[in-house]
Amino acid sequence: MNLTWRFFHLQVSDKLICGSVYDYLSTRIMAGLLSDGEKLPSILELSGAFHLAPETIRAALLILAEDGYIRMEAKQGSWVTYQADRAAREEAVARYYAQRCDGIQDLRRSAPYLLEPLLTHALREMDDSCRTRLRENWEAGRKDQIISPAIRLCALLLSVLNNSLILNLFWEVDRYLRFSCLSVSDAYDAVASAMFQNDRDNEAGRSDKVLYDAGGTIRQIIGICHEARGRYPAEEQVPFHWTIYRQRRQLCYTLAARIIRKIPAGVYPIGSYLPPLPKMAEELDVSVRTLRRTLSILSSLGVTRSFHGKGTLVCMEVEDIEFSRPEIKEGLRYYWESLQFLSLTAGPVSLHMLRTMPEADSDSLTAQFNEMCERDRCHRCFDIVLDFIAERCPLAMVRECYGALQEFLAWGYPFTVHRLRNHSLQSEYAQTIGQAADCLTRRDWEGFSGKFGALMAREARLAEMILTDYCKQSPSGDGENILPEITDTIEVHP
Q1: Measured between alpha carbons, how far is 397 from 392 in angstroms, rounded to an integer?
Q2: How far is CA 478 from CA 328, 468, 483, in A?
Q3: Are strands 311-314 and 304-307 parallel, antiparallel or unpaired?
Q4: 291 lies in a domain?
Q5: Inter-axis angle of helices 381-392 and 425-441, to 10 degrees?
Q6: Residue 353 pLDDT > 80, yes or no?
Q7: DSSP string of 39-73?
Q8: Is residue 494 part of a domain?
Q9: Is the pTM of the predicted complex or chain greater than 0.85?
Q10: What letter would DSSP give residue 155?
Q11: How far apart are the C-alpha atoms of 43 and 40, rounded to whole Å?
């Protein structure tokens, strides 16, 4: 393969693990962009480039040294020692893509329902000042020979949404593709120039242009995948995985969401006590220590309260939220960002699912909706639909993403309960969900997807108002930065 390989992976904060640095440097070494005997930048230089702590960079370099890519000398620096010839390099590239052929093809099929709605909405949201800022960023990065123009342009557009979760997904996709730029094309200068013009009459045309050109990179990679699969047909497939959490508290976040989701499901009703810690830890397959940390988070969120000698009560006293805790800030930010994500994609995703799933599956979804309405539990609609998508959507990337988004939505349940304390959850959603159930019964897939998408958009607007209101009323005052932080901390590239 006579190709010029490029690779880039976004780093957004010092919280990211050293594995991303390892991926970046090992890929450049394998692709021949860093040659045998070439000295690497210093740890401080890499730290500045990646926006990571020197200790993180050092850990990545140590792993590279252990794997034979580099050698490290105290106070002297690091040098590339990998000596594979061209055939070995091409074999490594081919095996990488042979292992991801199915995943990359699925990614391409998923893009119209996950990524394209986000890019289209970002284009519509740009005002004049935003266009000016993006144009300046684009011009400043024109000499960058590492980042794919298609990838960089899409990242700039998605930054308009001020949603770190969406950018995280975008860069995880790029990380999965690994060699995200096969050639540097001047065509993107013309695309970007048109994109950042203050001409709303041509908005749709610019949207189609950027999506078509950005898709060119994927089409080129899929061609390489087919060639690689032909050479190595027996390679085990590596699916796309969305890595969101990068810290040790990941298990506590996931466990907190699992426990919260069991409350409206009736497993842990409000007013009841949770099982004893040893029994509950065994049921959830975690250590007692992890469970204690998780219950501490739930207590700060106002979901539970512990009483010495009695146990842990499910109470949903949302007024007592401790906004000063980093775990609470991050969890609530992800909750709002997941709602924004769903408000833009739930309609297209649910419509595609209903159109492509077997008739028996659509009948099962219809039956669940009708039963939910009959039992006056319409607030369960979100879990039912998202469960269905996460388990039965034919697109693996969609299943992966929506499974993760379910966890974040669980963090919003306490706020919904508090907002509706003067009336029931059932009365809040009964009319809309009843109409959606009727659409399912009539097999009106467009009607159902439109109503569900509109419901997610409404929830996103309400969440923003609720969180803003709670933050202003927070006794510590620390909570008022939760939503503004989204704008202040997002970075498009190192």
Answers
A1: 12
A2: 11, 12, 11
A3: antiparallel
A4: yes
A5: 50
A6: yes
A7: BPPPHHHHHHHHT--HHHHHHHHHHHHHTTSEEEE
A8: no
A9: no
A10: H
A11: 9
Residue keyed to tokens 């006579």: 2
* pLDDT given at position 462: 81
Q: What is the pLDDT of residues 372-406, one digit of tens each?
A: 888 777 777 888 899 999 999 999 999 999 998 98
Domain limit, last residue, from 173, 198, 231: 231
DSSP state at residue 181: B
* Per-residue confidence band for 483, with pLDDT thresholds at 50, 70 and 90: low
- Please report, as a single letter, which amino acid is at residue 108: R
Residue 63: half-sphere exposure toward Cβ, Cα within 13 Å: 15
Choice among 199-208, 230-239, 308-317, 378-387 with the minimum mean pLDDT: 199-208
- pLDDT, one tens digit per residue, over 72-97 is 998 889 999 988 777 877 887 788 88
CA–CA dist 85, 30 (Å, integer): 10
Exposure string of 220-245, with b = 16+ CB inside 10 Å and e = fewer, is ebbebbeebbeeeeebeeeebebbbb
User: Which amino acid would we find at residue 130?
Assistant: C
Same domain assignment for residues 27 and 117: no
Name the least confident of 49-53, 171-175, 227-231, 392-396.
49-53
- The amino acid occupying position 455 is L
Q: Please provide residue 162's backbone torsions phi and psi, each rounded to the nearest 5 degrees.
A: 55, 45
At 308 the three-state DSSP class reads: coil
Mean pLDDT of 205-215: 55
In a domain, 5, yes or no: no
**Alpha carbon separation from 292 to 1, 252, 266, 430 (Å, rounded):** 54, 9, 22, 37
Percent of the chain with pLDDT over 70: 73
Range of the domain at 197: 101-231
Contact present, 52 and 16 (Cβ < 8 Å): yes
DSSP state of 318: G
| Tokens linked to 367 | 């039956």
Q: Give the domain CATH number at 370.
A: 1.20.120
46 and 127 inside one domain: no
State residue 275 phi and psi, 5-degree precision. Answer: -60, 160
In whole numbers, what is the pLDDT of the chain averaged over residues?
A: 77
SS3 assignment, position 324: coil
